[in-house]
Amino acid sequence: MDYKIVGQTVPVVEVTLNKGESMYTQSGGMAYQTDGIEMKTNTHGGIMKGLGRVLAGESLFMANYTAEKDGATIAFASTVPGSVVPFDLSKYQDGLTFQKGAFLCAESNVETKITFTKRFSSGFWGGEGFILQKAMGNGMLFLEVDGDPIVKELSAGEVLKVDTGNVVAFSPSVSYEVETVKGLGNIFLGGEGLFLTRLVGPGKVILQSQNFGDFAGRIMGFLPKNR
Asked: Is the pTM of this model over 0.85?
């Protein structure tokens, strides 16, 4: 398969498939397609994996698209202004861990499943929920990034503290926990909340420049209030 990213504000990934090649996405992810593609909807791995995706904020059913002829094209659209980032999972032997809601689409030989943080407090207070997702396989994975992607390569023991809503994905070798912001003045007046995500290397970390939760909160402040 070949692919290209089309657009800049709300981009799509346009994939050209040969006969028999497949892509899957959650329900509603497809933007457009040419003739010669068959669609099948299922739980992609069984009902338990489907329920796991629901816990991670994804849809129970996945739409699977298979090319019936060479050169068939299909595109998958991001949902908010930002970027689509490709990952060749053959370069990630231990897979890639990513936040809920970041999955856009993947080749059929990529497996996604829920994964739990090592510390319960990380998930309970982290803002992204107790459940993350993990992708493994030899194919291409495409993730949505709100705003622009920022890639950091952490050395062993190197620490990066991030607003949780700005974390997209990281290598399984990166440890993930949440720490409390120090100082009452910082907590109540700093505007950054009570907790920060603490990522410790070695490994790759992908961040996003926009925290869409904060952005949505600002929009809500401008909406008329019912009386």
From this structure: no
Between 42 and 20, the more confident residue is 20
Residues 63-87 have pLDDT tens digits of 999 999 999 999 999 988 999 999 9
Using only the alpha carbons of the chain, give its radius of gyration: 19
The residue among 24, 69, 30, 65 whose CA lies nearest residue 44 is 24
The average pLDDT across 119-127 equals 49
Residue (of 149, 2, 148) closest to 75 by Cα position: 2
- Half-sphere exposure of residue 179: CA atoms within 13 angstroms, side-chain side: 12
Q: Give the model confidence (pLDDT) of 160-190 as tens digits.
A: 999 878 999 999 999 988 777 664 444 444 4
Correct CATH for 2-222 of 1.10.10.1100, 3.90.190.20, 3.60.160.10, 3.40.50.720 = 3.60.160.10
Which among 115, 113, 214, 204 is positioned nearest to 163, based on CA atoms? 214
- Nearest by Cα to 164 from 116, 132, 142: 132
| Strand-pair category, 195-200 with 159-162 | antiparallel
Rounded Cα gap, residues 205 and 99, in angstroms:
12
Q: Residue 19: CA atoms inside 13 Å, Cβ hemisphere, count?
A: 3
> How many angstroms separate the most distant Cα atoms in the chain?
63
Q: Any idea how long the chain is?
A: 227
